[in-house]
Amino acid sequence: MTALDDLPLRDDLRGKSPYGAPQLDVAVRLNTNEHAFAVPDGVVEAMGKALQVELAGLNRYPDRDAVALRTDLADYLGHGMTTANVWAANGSNEVQQQLLQAFGGPGRTALGFGPSYSMHPLLAAGTGTRWVGAFRDPDFGLTPAAAVAQIEEHQPDLIFLCSPNNPTGTALDPSVIDAVLAAAKGMVLVDEAYYEYARAGTRSALVLLPGHPRLVVTRTMSKAFGFAGGRLGYFAADPAVVDAVQLVRLPYHLSSLTQAAARAALSQRDAMLATVEAIKEQRDRIVATLRARGTEVADSDANFVLFATGGDQKVAWQAFLDRGVLIRDVGLAGWLRVTAGTETETSAFLTAAEEILP
Ligand SMILES: *Cc1c(COP(=O)(O)O)cnc(C)c1O
């Protein structure tokens, strides 16, 4: 048996582990922030028809530039976005990787404020980009002054912001994004994977795009859109940023089937997004119920909640699993993250929490 260490692997990848939440066969799975509801029947039908149309044409490559899909995504985003402002790939992880390929790479630096999405440093590593792990405040907040000081110290080529932030759940104050844009000499990427779940009045960084050609806002259909298995992420930015990623994207990276299914889902967006309010209700129920019993909880604008376990989070994580509830240990001492599920799944979590948490 050949071990990984026996292969001539790149030195900077030695000793690294692949990204991976345990995918365990458990009754209640609240660990990867998927949308809890299945794709509605009417949308399944629309997707089926759209895919059927594509099948005989699979001898041909797909539309390399995914123009029709990008037009539909621009229409969904609003804010004056057009096809030229939008780029799509197989998940927002792929669009972020393409942005790192174009704007990061050997000799360049990317910076993010932890705790945040663990894929950002992994994507940097994979593209040979040096990663600077900057810090949020001890209460997981981030002030404009703290953000700017760390940017000035490290002068990164690319800055990752995540709003609403994973794993803490809270959206960034708009003043932080404004200050970061003013201080940054390179690209600023705002990961808005959870934007559709944000509390009313939360500003999207999309409003800042006019006049900020180095700002990129990434979105995904994996979360509120309930299309995680379909793999479709996208960004909105100045059209020049779209030109930049076209230098590094693989030709025909988005299959005809992906483009067709995503367009069918977007055409049925009201049905696809109909359950977002139900998820937000369960999210708010988790926050309120845990706080009422004295558990510390971070404010959430997402479909998940970060809560304090009052002790070793690994022990608490196992105790939830023993009760058939799979949640996420994000590696933050004393904290665990739970995805808001259906009412039944959420009740199962809260019942277990009542037994487990001090
Ligand atoms: C889940 C998640 C994504 C989604 O990635 P996809 O590749 O689009 O599935 C992106 N960013 C953050 C912060 C996430 O939590």
- What is the CATH first-level class name of the largest domain? Alpha Beta
Low-confidence stretches: none
CATH fold descriptor of the largest domain: Aspartate Aminotransferase, domain 2
Q: Helices and strands, in N-to-C order?
A: EHHEHEHEHEHEEEHHHHEHEEH
Mind explaining what this structure looks like?
By secondary structure, the protein is α/β, with parallel strands linked by helices. It folds into 2 domains: 4-30 and 275-356, Alpha-Beta Complex (Aspartate Aminotransferase, domain 1); 41-271, Aspartate Aminotransferase, domain 2. Helices cover 37% and strands 14% of the residues. It contains 12 helices and 11 strands. Strands 2-8-7-6-5-3-4 form a 7-stranded mixed beta sheet, with helices on both faces. Strands 1-10 form a two-stranded parallel ribbon. α3 packs across α4 (119-126) and α10 (276-292) runs parallel beside α12 (343-356). The longest helix has 17 residues, at 276-292. The mean pLDDT is 96. Bound molecules: pyridoxal-5'-phosphate. Pyridoxal-5'-phosphate is lined by residues 33, 91-93, 117, 162, 166, 191, 193, 220, 222-223, 228, 233.
